[in-house]
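sanity check this record:
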Amino acid sequence: MSSNAEGPDLGEKLSAPPDFNGPTTKRQMTDILCTVLLWCMWIAMTGLGLYAMQQGDYRLILYPLDYDGNLCGTNKGQVDMTDYPFLYYVNDFSGGVCVKECPKLENLTDPKTLVTYSGLYQVDGSYITTDDIAMADYSYNNDTLACTETLCYPNNDPEQSFTSYGVNMGKGFSYYAMDTYELMWRCVFTDEARDALDAVVNPNNENNLTSVIGTMASQNEQIKEGYNIWSNLYGDLWVARYYILGLGFGTPLVVGFVYSLFLRIPLVLPFMVWFSVVATIAIVFGGAYYAGELATEWKNADPPMYTDDNIKIARYGSYALYAFGGLLAIVFLFMRKRIQLAMGCVKEASKAILRLPLIILFPVIQALGFAAFMIVWTVYSAYIASMGEFKTEQIDTVPGLFISVRYFVFSDFIKQSGWFMLFCFFWSGQFIISIGEIIFAMSISKWYFARDKKKVGSGAVISSITTSIWYHTGTAAFGSLIIAIIQMIRSAIAYLQKKADEMDSSLAKAILCCLQCVVLCFEKIFKFINKNAYIQTAIFGTSFCTSAKEAYCLIMRNAARIIAITYVSGGVVFVGKMFITTLTTGAAYFVLDHELRDELYSNIGPLFFIALSAWFISGMFMGVFDMGIATILQCFVADEEMYGDSQSMYAEGSLKNWVEDHGKSSEKRGCME
């Protein structure tokens, strides 16, 4: 019946102990050292987070920084800027001043008024007042450069002013009063204001003013990225934290729970699966169309409300979604027969899940635990990112004239702390998945190894929860640590790939890409090993290494059927995860775009974490079926080795026939079907 291999490496067939009656009740704590290490990591993370909360200030990654190191809208700095929350840029070195409101000028620009480091400077012909640009008082700074007629406005001539020392074509300590719009507490020049100023100070376009003002609007690479990409990311996550929590956890919880309930019903299963396939593709293409229309709308907006970078992101995002949707359609097309076979796997697992209704609720508990961890992790990470230092740079724009610019930099300690927090995220997330897999395996194995399966109920789930947490936390920590280390290696390679892109080294990019693929394969292999090791731990109570060895030998002795059925069983699981994640991310995009459009640098960061959370939570729900199939299959081959074809086997007749039929037929069909 089975594809048994000869040789000592695969061990001997299992033999049933005289008193065997399902998962062992004589257990001891396994892999205690890994439990200690996990707690040490959490304690270290907490200590680092509390230290960061004392030393840092999350406002540093949210609010703009003026040229003198004051945070607009806060009392952080030499001067209380609470009443001046917006930053008006004065040069393209990120130097700016805090203002009460972003100026809205009916005439678009007042070229006779300059916004300077020391205040407003006006010459004959200016028309705006200090009420139009209510600027903070910088008179406390005796080192600040101040405008004079010679420095900023020679001969009261706008053209000479533009090339003067003070303005210096956007590289000085002053710039013209212009019409703006608000973007993340920054005042961004409108296109109309740029054109109006161009006509006055550069009528012959001799100084390429359009390029200069465009640079002022986008505020060069450093300003476009904020202080840096990490500050922008943490800032967006902080602003959208409640939406990430609600949409990233609440939505997939509800969708995943309802989806799992319907999958348990045999008659509804085919409809749910094929509906999910069509709906997933439709959502992706719908998102692509919407992003394209949005990019067009932003481009044609009058006055413009979004930067060219935002428009490009929306446009390229649309192209990426179209490509992703097409790829999904092709993948589902090739997987159609595999998905059809996978429905049979799910139907068999559903028999156990119907008898253990409480098991569907456990992913909710997992998700709540993950949400609690993410709240703490996000707060700690935001404070860690805010522990950077202010640096002052004197820029020699013209001989003898230095412009002072303050900016925010991260020390090596903060960068290393960021890597450590990433490791905490990986290990904790994988641990939550792992302990859940042990609980699922133990619950289903109790159902399988019951002579009267109708008497097994949710009590088996409750006892499995307490037993797994008390005895096998270390085993879950051991397996999850392996995956976390591999994911950290992948993250380090991704970091090097980014550096290779910056260096434009084709050889380095090719090598790193291949290395990334190899490490990804290792991650998949170890996840497979872990899952089957957890099943052995759930049944026999052994440690991780022993369980992994026994699971490997058991699988290899029955390789043909296990590999074939395991391969096809992933079809429905993949469809379910894609549907829940796509639906959640699509809904989150519309909500964020409607509620936080003007408060985020980009919604990519929050959407990424929402999608990641949705994929994680959907994996918990679909993992119930995936783990159910794997557990039933491993229980079956163990049952078969212990009892053969005798009537003493715990497997029901329908299960025996199903495993034999689908194991053989799946092997014949081959992987492409």
Q: What stands out?
A: The beta strands are 86-89, 96-99, 109-116, 119-122, 174-178, 180-183, 186-189, 389-398, 401-409. The first helix runs from residue 32 to 55. Confidence is low (pLDDT under 50) at residues 1-8, 209-228, 665-673. The longest strand covers residues 389-398.
